[in-house]
Design a protein that fits this description.
about 80 residues, alpha+beta, SH3 type barrels, five-stranded antiparallel beta sheet, about 40% strand, elongated
């Protein structure tokens, strides 16, 4: 199963971004998408930003992920 997690871009240097969600930061490659700016939301999968998404979509996806985690339905 693949899961892309929405994260907000905090810094960009060359083709690498530091992205954050809920206080957790991860480094991700931006080589697969263009025109990413600090403050944008991107879907992160396996260390790569795979898609740029708008703020509303990011918040809806994060809400759904948090609900699943709160119900204890997350895969182990």
């Amino acid at each position: 199963m693949c899961l892309g997690v929405p994260m907000q871009v905090k810094t960009i240097e060359n083709e690498m971004a530091v992205c954050e969600i809920d206080g957790v930061q991860r480094e991700a490659s931006l080589m697969m998408i263009d025109n990413v700016q600090v403050g944008d939301y991107v879907l992160i999968h396996a260390g790569f930003a795979i898609e740029k998404i708008d703020d509303d979509e990011a918040q809806l996806t994060l809400k759904a992920l948090r609900e699943v985690l709160d119900m204890g339905l997350a895969p182990e």
